[in-house]
Design brief:
A hairpin with a 6-residue loop joins β4 (29-33) and β5. The longest helix is centred in the last third of the chain and has 32 residues, at 167-198. The protein has a domain at 125-198. It has helices at 55-58, 103-112, 125-134, 140-153, 167-198, and strands at 2-3, 9-13, 20-24, 29-33, 40-44, 79-80, 87-88, 94-96, 99-101. The protein is elongated and about 100 Å long. The strands form 4 sheets. The chain has a 3-stranded antiparallel sheet, with no helix packed on it. Strands 4-5 form a two-stranded antiparallel ribbon. The chain is built from 5 helices and 9 strands. By secondary structure, the chain is α+β, with helices and mostly antiparallel strands. α3 runs parallel beside α5 (167-198).
């Protein structure tokens, strides 16, 4: 992201292809497609993005034999990406967890090769399963098997942003098994009563 000099518009870069598009001051919710790769871009913009910034104070222009930025060839390379080794100006550098990354590497580490250090979100499948067997209790004929599937399918993926115990997973597992057993018993009784009525 680059703040525009006139403080009434800002330049955004697509995280996938680095295509550029402009947004105007006051448009704090961006929900559109990249004009280059057509990837969906959805984000909330802080008003601070539109402040006037002197680019000379952020990045130095390249001169003579200086190494140049991979992403902004007119700027001097001041940093090196810790992931791919690209030369970057301060303008192209993203500081993350005491390291420096370029935008394509940050996108790759967060979205394509997710690591706990770069998680943008965490899906807590055990809590989803627990909600299926408690909040949707009248529908557990359908939701209990789904909860059991989620628990078994994602049994190794219990990580989150904070340390968690496995209590939620076990509670959801026990409840889903009990609901399935209860519904199975009711169906057996119902079928046997129908069979007796026919005979």
């Amino acid at each position: 992201m680059d703040s525009a000099v006139d403080a009434h518009s800002a330049t955004l870069q697509c995280p996938r292809c680095r295509g550029v598009f402009m947004i105007q001051d006051g448009n704090l919710n961006v929900d559109e497609n990249c004009p280059v790769c057509q990837a969906e871009v959805s984000l909330s913009v802080y008003q601070r993005l539109f402040r006037a910034v002197s680019l000379e104070s952020v990045s130095q222009p390249s001169e003579g034999d200086d190494a140049i930025c991979t992403f902004y060839p007119d700027l001097k390379a001041e940093n090196i990406c810790d992931a791919c080794g690209s030369f970057m100006s301060e303008r192209a550098t993203i500081h993350w967890s005491e390291k420096k990354y370029c935008l394509p590497c940050l996108y790759r580490l967060r979205e394509e090769e997710p690591s706990s250090d770069f998680k943008a979100s965490s899906k807590l499948y055990d809590k989803r399963a627990l909600a299926l067997v408690t909040l949707l209790a009248p529908l557990t004929l359908f939701t209990a098997p789904l909860a059991l599937f989620l628990l078994l399918r994602h049994r190794k993926d219990r990580s989150g942003f904070v340390p968690r115990t496995g209590a939620t997973w076990w509670i959801a597992l026990i409840l889903s098994i009990l609901w399935i057993a209860g519904w199975g018993t009711l169906m057996v009784i119902w079928i046997s009563l129908i069979a007796e009525g026919i005979s």
